[in-house]
Give the backbone structure.
Amino acid sequence: MFAIYKRELKAYFISPIGYLFVGNFLAVSGLLFSICTLQRQESSSVADYFQYLIYAFAILLPLLTMKSLSEERRTKSEQLLMTSPVSVTGIIVGKYLAALSVFGAVLLANSLNFVLLEKFGNANGTLILSNLICLFFIGALFLAVGIFFSSLTEDTLVSAITSMDVIFVMLAVNFLSDISISWVKKIVDFISVLARYEPFTYGILDVTSIIYYVSLAAVFLFFAVRVYERRRWA
Amino acid sequence: MKNEKNTAIGTTYTSADKQREAVTKKLKYGSLSWGFAVIVVVLCIAINLAASLLSARLDLRVDITDDEARFFTISDGTKSFFEKLFADNPDWHITIRFLAEEDKVSDNMVLEIARSYESAFVDHVSLEFTDINSNRELWEHYSNVTQTQLTRYHVLVEGEYHTRAVSFANFYLTDSESGDTVAFTGEKTFTAAFVKAGIKESPVAVFTAGHGETLDNGTYVLGDYVGYSAEQLAQANKLVLFDTLYDMGFDVQVVDLNESPLPENTRLIIVSDPKSDFMGYDPENPDAISEMQIIDDVMDNFNVTLIVTVDDDTPELPELQSYLEQEYGLGYVPNVSVTDNDRSIKGSDGLAVLGDIPELLDYTLGSQLVKGFTGDERFVFNSAVKLTVSKNANVYGEDTLIATSPSAVAGGESGSYPLIGYTLRGNAIEDEDGDDTENTEYKTAYLISSTDFLADRYLNRSYGNRDLFESILRKANTIQEYTGVEEVFFVDEGLDITTGEARGWTVAVTLIAPAIIFAVALTVWAKRRHA
């Protein structure tokens, strides 16, 4: 699995995809950061910035995963992988961890922007930290979604767009919480990615939310493994 | 057959192995594959449901707000206070009822601190959510119970004996000058509401009688109302002062200390406009009732407030004066009027002096009493007498709550004179082992230089007298000091950046780093293309 992880991590930076992702991520998040804080010239509160960044994830993160498995399938290199002495789970998890590492590193690098808040105001470090922790787990979930849809098709564009659609649906579910039917509301609150994010916005690390993100990511990875298992023996 | 072995590829297989492999294959990509997937999804849902259920019993949330001041963590002081209370009263139960469904509660900070109480005191505190907008009957019921026009911006604290409605606004401290919200008082507000809701009997405000005490400029002679029940007294007197006391949660009684003791749940003693002295301790007649000793004994229970109003007509009262001076460092100079021709109500010949809040107030009490004031309020003190507020080794803190302007005159000398002096005496609460805890209980004394300060004509909303009196009563009817809970101040998130700087940094964070990344990408691409 570690070999797959290393290979995948290297692949991100010998092809344009890794750079495109990092560059676009920094540009989009930098712009959102400026609009939500510097341009307003009022407050160093980063609540809005993190909210918008989650929506930006819906577009940015599928860029990172769209090629993970579909490209292997398109170039037929997946047959090499399938016959390699690595389990399918190892392949999927290795690729997922590579994407997660790139995402985590960019999220960390992007945090340098907060130095500006300290320079011109008073950044609330603990709130920034709790938001970042939650965003990492939300990103981890979205990457798992991307990996799953990448396993379904050999067309990278289809993989990316399907992932974006599903992630948008996952985010839009939160808007259904206005429905007055109580059992629907309960279900919506239970599955809503954004509702689970809320405690982190005011400095609470909610372990149940983290369990939710991690378990849902695990389910999507499990589905990706299932898809590959079926294909391996089909 | 059971022990049949296959060594074709160097591995030994038994029939059991074959069976196991067949099941594994079925699970992985065969007929059981879908079932396996469903099981995993169900397992995921089960794990999350279990976590949600567990979080209701165990606190599965970590408060990482600032170490010094955590917004949602119940302090050790409050915990030990309630643990002791619950140990003494095992049946004590508090319901925190939000008036909206859980996801519609508009103030998440209040909801979070409520959850913290529920987690900290699982057997004694529970959370409920009731949408009052969709249930008119419930709205009417709770509005009647709390005597409050309830909205979804209230939370109810339901104890065994009382239900308290607390507005979300009361969970925050606002800067009186800027109007900005500067601190969160969640722990403080809930703690006070819990105690109020759980206490069986209302606190009693006692007016002393038997020394010529009167109210409202001599209109009401308190001695005429001794023995009246709270209801009888409410019917007999339509004074704003009484209404204010009732509104602030007090039952009112008039007690002649020579005839009956002070009620057990006395929280406020008011000596209003005494004309003759109290009985002190008589060494020659030690069995005789000492009124001062009765008052002192009750004050020593702590969480009791003493208010004494005097004016320039109050004679020398050696026992009362001696008690106030020795115990609280407060005194008055009989028959020495305070007048102020420059700052008084027009037409009063300088007698109805207007007082101000001094700039420097002792933080422990004074600043909390006047925190909602703008400084523009007019506090009226008619026929004021000169007060003295002196340092006293016995007391925890003393200060002048309201003072005259420097143009005031008393005894022929001009200067700023105290119009309300106050003293706070603290006592560390001991734990079961007799060691001091961080909780402190207090007794407070106020000496007011004008008996008219609490008269109807000045307790209307044109003057600041009523707001200040309400603030004093709020303090008297609260255990906030009891637990030593402080408000938690927000980080000042102001941003001081010019438009030019904002534009410059926007370009920097949006373009420079991505440009470098794209440049590296181009280089890598070019190198690989021409490799």
About this structure: The first strand of chain A starts at residue 204 and ends at 206.
